[in-house]
Amino acid sequence: MPVAIITGASKGLGRALAEALAARGWDLVLDARTAEVLKETAAGVAEHGTRVEALAGDVADAAHRGALVAAARRLGGCRLLVNNASSLGAEPLVRLAELPLDGLRRALEVNVVAALGLVQEALPLLRTAPDGAVITLSSDAAAEAYGTWGGYGASKAALDQLAAVLGEEEPGLRVWAVDPGDMATDLYAAAVPGDDGVRAEPGSVVPAFLRLLDERPPSGRFGASALLEGRR
């Protein structure tokens, strides 16, 4: 069975994607910081009959990243790495004039440094997979200027650039940066408390990610809305 590593997998988009892949027969290595929630998620995902390894920890911890890749190796390799875990840098979001620099460092550490660190750990397995792929979660804040989203957006813009360069340097892999659009997630609720606007449920954008896996377009940056509409 193909094996995927998904970070930030206990809730939201990470969990929805894990459910969809398990339904397709993928074995999974799941990461999140909250052990109890991750355990419940893993149990639910495993009901699809696939093997699920759930490792609670912080992706900013090099030892934890190594443990995730080691778990994938025990399952037989790694065909897909999904860097979904994210940090806002401040909760709720604030203007740059008030953004704590330690918060910005945390956002960069989780969203950029840890993502690259996990790619580096997993590359030997991804390179030997028949169709290895990396998905990094982007944001429209990486490309547009929104008030209070500066720190988070800067970290996602940096991640987009890393994904673009990785795609050039690893022509045998597919490297897709995906902007999922606004979703009804705990991350968004923490970013903008009290915003009760209607947003997509995470599961509704999963077909966009499955389309990438099915069609394997060249490495690049994609919007989930375009993929769902049959465009790229």
Quick structural summary:
With 232 residues, the chain is α/β, with parallel strands linked by helices.
Beta strand %: 5-15%
Count of strand segments: 7
Question: How large, in whole angstroms, is the Cα Rg?
Answer: 16 Å
**Uncertain stretches of 5 or more adjacent residues:** none
**Fraction of helical residues:** 40-55%
Principal-axes shape call: globular
Mean pLDDT over all positions: 97
Number of helices: 8
Which class do the helix and strand fractions yield?
alpha/beta
Can you write the helix and strand succession as a string? EHEHEHEHEHEHHEH
Kindly, what is the distance between the CA atoms of the first and last residues, rounded to a whole number of angstroms?
28 Å
Q: Report strand order across the widest sheet.
A: 3-2-1-4-5-6-7
**Largest β sheet strand count, sense and barrel closure:** 7 strands, parallel
What's the structural blueprint in terms of helices and strands?
Layout: E1 3-6, H1 12-23, E2 27-32, H2 35-46, E3 52-56, H3 62-75, E4 80-83, H4 101-128, E5 133-137, H5 150-169, E6 174-179, H6 186-191, H7 206-215, E7 220-223, H8 224-228
Parallel strand pairs: 1-2, 1-4, 2-3, 4-5, 5-6, 6-7
Helix pairs in contact: 1-2, 3-4, 4-5
Descriptive report:
The protein is of the alpha/beta class and 232 residues long. It has eight helices and seven strands; from the N terminus they run βαβαβαβαβαβααβα. The chain has helices at 12-23, 35-46, 62-75, 101-128, 150-169, 186-191, 206-215, 224-228, and strands spanning 3-6, 27-32, 52-56, 80-83, 133-137, 174-179, 220-223. β1 (3-6), α1 and β2 form a beta-alpha-beta unit. The mean pLDDT is 97.
